[in-house]
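In this section we walk through a basic example: taking a raw amino acid sequence and producing a predicted 3D structure, encoded as discrete structure tokens. The instruction is simple. Fold the sequence below.
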Amino acid sequence: MTAQTISESSGGWLERENTIAKAGFNRWLVPPAALAIHLCIGMIYGFSVFLLPLSRAIGISKAVACPADSTILTRLFATSCDWQVADLGWIFSIGIVVLGGSAALFGGWLEKHGPRKAGVVAALCWAGGFLISAYGIYIHQLWMLWLGSGVIGGIGLGLGYISPVSTLIKWFPDKRGMATGMAIMGFGGGALIGAPLANNLMTNFASSSSVGVWQTFVVMGIIYFVFMMGGALGYRVPPDGWQPEGWKPVANTSGLITSRDVDLKDAHKTPQFWMIWIVLCFNVSAGIGVLGLASPILQEIFAGKLIGAPDVGFLQLDAGQKAAVAAIAAGFAGLLSFFNIIGRFFWASISDKIGRKLTYATFFVLGCILYASTPTLAHSGNKALFVLAFCIILSMYGGGFATVPAYLADMFGTKFVGAIHGRLLTAWSTAGILGPVVVNYIRDAQIAAGVERASVYDRTMYVLAGFLVIGFVANLLVRPVAEKWYIKGDKSGPSKGAAKATGGSFGIGLGGFSVPAMIAWVIVGIPIIWGIVDTLKKAFILFS
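The resulting token sequence is shown next.
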């Protein structure tokens, strides 16, 4: 038996050719499969809930400080002192950077082997990362958390994030934006489910000898593995040339929607790829910087105004007032996360109507106006409008993630869109460093210069507005791809004899309804609803 035969016999059922849908398959089974994976890996946004408990994993009630002369290298292997929050924060940063790198590196492999195999590998990496980290917490080795949830988990993030993209776009050529929006909204919603779940588990497992984190990691790793494997095994790809019954591609006179394909090896050679890269990078940089500092922003700007003490600045708050203000700010952060989710579906669906280029133009123009106006809203004390402005901003931040896969499919075709999207996600890795660094640097510089806390973010907001101006110009420069980049001999339209699948151009209720589809949507819908309700209950504190 040859090595190739062994490989095919051991992993053949995961290969792309064995995931091609049979006649009568309901395409509405694919989005909940994608959601099952994205809701799990989206917990990377909720990792901050572990930081404070982990910072006192040895001291339990009070952190045991490492020696003042300790270095990050010694703290990676230290077993007798607690970890610093700053050192733990690298788990998130490593995860996001590896996400972009693995998505770019393995995108071509995914297109060859299919979403099922990629989803299984993502499940093994993401859930396995939790278990490795759990053991690292148990024996108190920080490097194992960096490796487990940062590096290995980051590979799971990258593969899990891009695994449904090309599949959904091919199943929903009539609703590209809506389809990717449905899946990618799950990534934004992962923290809404995972964060309160983690808090409940840590409370349950906490004792006089443990903060309950390693046990929580084990339970969540198992839960995530089960859900992600269910999603991966639920993936199906349409036959080559498939299209929804009765649907005909609409002629696009602008040239911004192609029916042909650009090869993966050529996509990054086009100016269109790099213009869209800049579009995503600066849209994300502006939003992620604010998202990471949402709680401090509200606390420092409004301070006593949040609790009925308008003359009390942030530095004058006593311990009890700070706790009350922090609770309200937590509701603000949750509300932003909610709009981040809603925006992913809303704006991506809107882009199906008005086009991707106009959708991004809306993000940049409206976002620039809102960022530039927030200092005025803050100084006027108008809390409601200030919160509303940031809710809209974060909806467009999420919308940018959900709309970009459809933008790429419009420009480069659907054949390699998953791999091209993977390479484009290096823009996210860049933004994950650029946005927070710029926001944090400006904040610290303003504080060092003696600027009062209520005004330390004014300059930041103007800089972020400038980021969006750069994105607007890049989006304006997007033009149709030149003829030379298309695959030679590539013809548009479906191939003869292409199979049909149920689910018309509208979907549920018009040939798309089935009991399996309903069950699949209920399975992913229940945790989403639970997370949203929990978040809104906390957010209502803002206006109570």
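Looking at the output, two observations stand out. The chain has two domains: 15-241+508-538, 255-487. The chain is about 65% helix and 0% strand. In the next section we compare this with other chains.
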